[in-house]
Design brief:
The complex is a heterodimer of chains A (367) and B (343). By secondary structure, chain A is α/β, with parallel strands linked by helices. Chain A is built from 13 helices and 12 strands. Chain A has a domain of 78 residues. In chain A, the strands form 2 sheets. In chain A, strands 6-7-8-3-9-10-12-11 form an 8-stranded mixed beta sheet, sandwiched between helices. The N terminus and C terminus of chain A are likely disordered. In chain B, a hairpin with a 2-residue loop joins strand 4 and strand 5. The chains are: A alpha/beta (367), B alpha/beta (343). Chains A and B meet through helix 6, helix 7, helix 8, helix 9 and helix 10 of A and helix 7, helix 8, helix 9 and helix 10 of B.
Chain lengths: 367, 343
């Protein structure tokens, strides 16, 4: 196994950009993302559909093989540069150094190949072991992801298993060659709450046992709240806020993070509580709006937000940064909000309803 | 009795929809049968929202489809406004379809990709509505407007030009265009992001108030169900476990399965400790050979010999709260039901 020396981050991403060239222009799916992933830690990447979170993890792994994808910037793994490598060169890293669990367990397995062969194919290719040895490794893996009757399951086709079991197989495949970094791209979005809970517990346990670094991509802040060490919130291809998990929830500064959190229905609220939906849609990534890309949907936007793009700046607590001219809780935000409310912008009405419901609780998150 | 019973049904005839002992079975050859839904009973009064919640394979979608007789249930009654749908011939059933409409899970695949939005929404009117094209368009544009889609710009566009959330709005408009009394929503927000999910849930609440709709809301996410439902029925492997007014259900879950579902919910607050101690790695047993007695017993840590032999019947916890369990988490009346019962 390739070992990363202690104290050195597993992955350093610097100003990573992935643009897709289409007839209408360049889709800026990932537009200048910088991250550091420590060994054995979990980074949660959160955002809506189209925020670039999936393309980000694929870009780091070098999986954007489409001819129209252009990736620039830098991804350092073990001190080696990954951007610009060919798929052939990347292939040596896939499996042993980095692996991915995909969103849809229904379509990420080959329907006409038995589970056992799919599971051991790359074990044999990467580790160069005999068929019998690969089979025993495979069975052990199925045990470790808590698949009952692992020996029998070795010889079944994917359609004979439930969605949760298939996702366990996908996780077993990703773990087969003991990767240093695991990307989990919405691993539970297609699954039930109970199965989601099981799968997330399984991932956390495997990560602890193997001391892997993990990037957990999701649209649900609830999923990463208890499980990530650090969270990066993405919007329109950029990281708009990043902080250690507890800090992010207790001191959130970006209006988008606040809006994402408030749109989650909570069981602690009485029935028929009106949800604070985010009005509008994510922006066009070919021609993003001038200034802050969240400004058209933001209740706190002011003139400056539509003109000048905010840069990531450090907040009070260590490791916390955000990109906003009118951060949540600031006097500027309050002032801008009152102006916008007077003008009747739809996004302010949603927030106004919530503020009157919980006067003493300005962020509204401590339910 | 099998995690079923009718103790939780309301007396009197005020119910818009009353379902009794609904059973759906699918023969799969060699004398084997999939017991998808086994003896479910519930009722809904006008203007109410009933949430049906449970894991994949618990029969919640099959129940929703059986309500509109697609396919026809194997047994039981579905009383809609006084007529039993299961006994109707195809023609009389067809004429009642205008009263019950459905919204499906995947907004993109439930719209015909080759037809413009104006036509998609007008389709029910071609069958049932005014023959006059202008009158049809008036109606369609009113509905599109009501769901927050600009009618004039959307009319000649195709579904692929819209986002998932917008497609779901369009399918809601299509369900509403016949002004039905009852809408069955089969996981309408499961395929959507949290932010869009909130928009659609708010929209459903608004439309419900505006048009006096009655909803059956099927979902696996308890937080979503709690937000929109007046009453919630928890289903497991074709049976009903618990049936309650929704605030009460979440405050005092009585069935171990309901508690398992609640503990599995991701809470967006890092200070809340995760229930990682729960050792539930269980899978849903096969509905071809469901466990004897209580069907949940194979995953339940309270299960004993009684659970393996006798199927629990619905018992009143208090007021509007009923549970089918031999060892519920809260005290229940021993007698199955009394009119003014309560604890």
């Amino acid at each position: 196994m390739a070992a990363v020396s202690d104290g050195q981050p597993a992955l350093v991403v610097n100003d990573l950009k992935t643009h897709f060239t289409v007839p209408a222009g360049a889709v800026k799916a990932v537009d200048g993302v910088s991250l550091t992933l420590e060994r054995g830690k979990t980074l949660g990447v959160v955002g809506e559909s189209g925020s670039g979170k999936t393309v980000l993890s694929r870009s780091i792994m070098g999986l954007n093989v489409a001819g129209n994808a252009v990736t620039t910037g830098s991804v350092q793994y073990e001190g080696k540069e990954l951007v610009g490598r060919s798929s052939k060169e990347m292939k040596a890293l896939w499996g042993r150094d980095m692996a991915m669990v995909f969103q849809d367990p229904m379509t990420s397995l080959n329907p006409v190949v038995k589970i056992g062969r799919q599971l051991t194919e790359h074990v044999r290719a990467h580790l160069g072991v005999s068929k019998a040895k690969a089979q025993s490794i495979g069975t052990e893996l199925l045990h470790s992801v808590k698949i009952p009757e692992a020996e029998e399951r070795f010889d079944v086709y994917p359609h004979e298993m439930s969605g949760g079991m298939r996702q366990r197989v996908c996780i077993a495949m990703a773990l087969a060659c003991s990767p240093e970094v695991l990307f989990a791209d919405e691993p539970t979005t297609a699954l039930d709450v109970t199965v989601q809970h099981q799968i997330l517990n399984l991932l956390a346990g495997q990560q602890r046992d193997r001391n892997m670094a993990m990037i957990l991509v999701t649209h649900d802040l609830g999923v990463v709240a208890g499980r990530a060490d650090e969270i990066a919130v993405m919007y329109a291809g950029k990281v708009v806020e990043q902080a250690p998990t507890a800090t992010l929830f207790s001191e959130m500064r970006h209006p988008y993070t606040e809006a994402l959190l408030n749109s989650i229905p909570q069981t602690t609220k009485p029935k028929h509580t009106r949800l604070s939906a985010i009005t509008g849609r994510p922006p066009d990534l070919i021609n993003p709006p001038k200034g802050c890309s969240f400004a058209p949907r933001c209740p706190y936007a002011r003139a400056k937000c539509h003109e000048e793009e905010p840069q990531l700046q450090a907040a009070g607590s260590s490791g916390h940064q955000f990109a906003c001219h009118t951060p949540v809780g600031s006097p500027a935000a309050k002032e801008a909000f009152e102006t916008n409310l007077a003008e009747g912008l739809p996004q302010t009405l949603v927030v106004a309803g919530r503020l009157t419901a919980s006067e003493d609780n300005s962020t509204g998150w401590a339910g | 009795m099998a995690g079923s019973g009718t103790a939780h049904l309301r007396t009197g005839n005020e119910a818009l929809l009353r379902v009794e002992d609904l059973t759906v079975e699918f023969p799969i050859g060699r004398d084997r049968v999939v017991h998808a839904v086994s003896g479910i009973s519930f009722d809904i009064v006008k203007g109410e929202t009933l949430g049906l919640v449970g894991e994949s394979g618990c029969g919640k979608s099959t129940t929703g489809k059986a309500l509109i007789q697609l396919p026809r249930p194997t047994g039981g009654q579905v009383m809609l406004g006084g007529s039993d749908l299961t006994g109707l011939d195809n023609e009389s059933l067809r004429s009642l379809r205008t009263q019950v409409q459905m919204i499906f899970q995947d907004p993109i695949s439930s719209l015909n990709p080759r037809r413009a939005v104006g036509e998609v929404v007008a389709e029910p009117l071609h069958v049932w509505g005014p023959a006059d094209k202008d009158a049809q368009w008036d109606k369609v544009s009113t509905m599109l407007d009501a769901v927050g889609i600009d009618p004039d710009s959307a009319r000649y566009k195709y579904p692929h030009e819209f986002s998932g959330g917008q497609c779901q709005r369009i399918s809601i408009a299509r369900a509403l265009v016949l002004e039905p009394e009852l809408i069955i929503c089969d996981e309408p927000v499961s395929a959507l992001d949290v932010s869009v999910q909130a928009q659609i849930l708010n929209l459903l609440e608004d439309l419900k108030a505006q048009y006096g709709l009655t909803l059956v809301f099927i979902a696996h996410d308890l937080a979503v169900v709690k937000n929109i439902s007046d009453r919630v029925a928890v289903m497991y492997l074709g049976k009903m476990c618990e049936y309650s007014e929704s605030d009460e259900l979440y405050a005092n879950p009585a069935h171990p399965y309901t508690q398992l579902l609640l503990e599995s919910l991701p809470i967006p607050d890092p200070r809340v400790e995760l229930h990682t101690g729960v050792t539930d790695d269980g899978e849903l047993p096969s509905p071809i050979n469901p466990p004897s007695g209580c069907r949940f017993r194979t995953r339940c840590d309270r299960a004993d010999d009684v659970c393996a032999e006798i199927e629990p019947a619905m018992r009143r916890v208090n007021g509007d709260h009923f549970v089918a369990c031999h060892h519920p988490l809260v005290a229940v009346d021993e007698v199955s039901v009394s009119v003014d019962g309560g604890s």
